[in-house]
Design a protein that fits this description.
The protein is globular. The protein is an alpha/beta fold. It has an eight-stranded parallel sheet with strand order 3-10-9-8-7-6-5-4. A two-stranded antiparallel sheet has the order 1-2. The longest helix has 33 residues. It is 43% helix and 11% strand. The protein has 16 helices and ten strands. Strand 9, helix 15 and strand 10 form a beta-alpha-beta unit.
Amino acid sequence: MPIIASINDFHRVARRRLPRFLFDYADGGALDELTLRRNVRDLAAVTLRQRVLQDVAKVDCSTSWFGRPVSLPVALGPIGIGGMFRRRGEVQAARATARHDVPFTLSTVGICSIEELRAGAPDARLWFQLYVIRDRGFMRELIARAKAKGAEVLVFTVDMPTPGIRQRDPRSGMSGPGGPARRFLQALGKPRWAWDVGIRGRPHQLGNLVPVLGADSGMEDYIGWMAANFDPGIRWNDLDWLRAEWDGPLVIKGILDPEDARAAAEFGAEGIVVSNHGGRQLDGVLSVARALPAIADAVGDRMTVLADGGVRSGLDVLRMLALGADGVLLGRAWLWALAAGGEAGVDRMLAMLAHELRVVMTLAGCSSIAAVDRTLLAHPSFLPYKDNV
C-alpha cells in the first residue's frame, strides 16, 4: 500500500482501487454538490485558540454517550452498501471498531445483515440505523432483530423521505440505462476489486432486506427500492409506535434546524445527529459546521448532540466538539479506509484519528473532552459566511 499519513491518503488509494460507479456513488453529492463541498470547507475554516502552559501532560480522549463510555468521541456512521467496498466490508469495519471500543452503525441497506455482522464481529458495539419505511411491519421486524443481536442504540434517519438527485450515479453507471453492462466493464478494469468483492464477496444482496424481498434484494434494486419504499408522509406524531418498539437510546439522524432539534427532544429522543446526509440530499443547505452551534444551543442541555459531515482528521473532530457536538459520526472517512486497506485500513484510520486528536488537544491546551467547549473557538460566533465553493 502507498504511504498513508492522513484520511485523504486513504481517499486517493480508494479512487485507484474502486470501479468508478462505486467511487462516485460514495464520493458524490446531490445536484451541483455545493453542500458537499461546504461541509469540508466550512469545517476547515473553524479557527481554534492555541493555549500554552495548561498542564496537558495527560490527555484523555474518552467520553460517555448514553451512559456508556467510549474511548474516542467517534462512531462509524451508517453507509449503504458498505460491503461492496471490500469483501463483506461492514463486518471488517465492525471488527476494527471493536479493538478501539467505538460503536459501528449498520445501515438498513448494508450488504451484510444484522445477523452476519454480529456473527462476524461478536465484540463490536453495534448501533443500528433505520430508515423511514412505508411498511411499518418490516420496521418493527428490523427493530426486533436489532434488539435480539444486542444493538445499543437505534439511529433513525429522517432526512431521506426520497433519495436526493445525485447526478454522478447515472453518469457513472450506478443507475440509469446500461448500468449493469457499464458496471461489469468497470469491474474488469479493477481486477483486485473484482476478485475480492465481485467474486469472493458474494452474495451482493441487501442483507437486511432478504427476509422480505428474497431474490429481489440484490444491488440491481438498491436505488429503486429506496425510492419506492421510503415514506415522505410521516410526521412526528406518527412516531409514537417507534418509541414503544425500542426502549433503548434513540438517536434522530438528519437534523439541520433548531426547530427540528427541539421537536426531537420533545418527542423523547436521547440524541440527534446534526447532518445533511453528507451533502447527498438537499443541495444548497447549510453545512453541518454552520448549522451545529445554533442546534447545540437549542438542545445541548437536553440530549446528546452528535454531528457528521466533512470530518477528515482529529483536528476536525476537535472543531466539531468546539462548535457544540458531543461526538461525531464518521462516514466517508471509514469507507475510504475500508476500500484502501480492508479491516486493517479501518484499524489504522481509527488509530490515526486517536493520535491526531490527542496531539491537537495537547496543542490547544485541553486535557479532556469535557474541557472542550466554545471558548476554544478563536471566533465564538463562528464565521461570517463566505461561500467560496
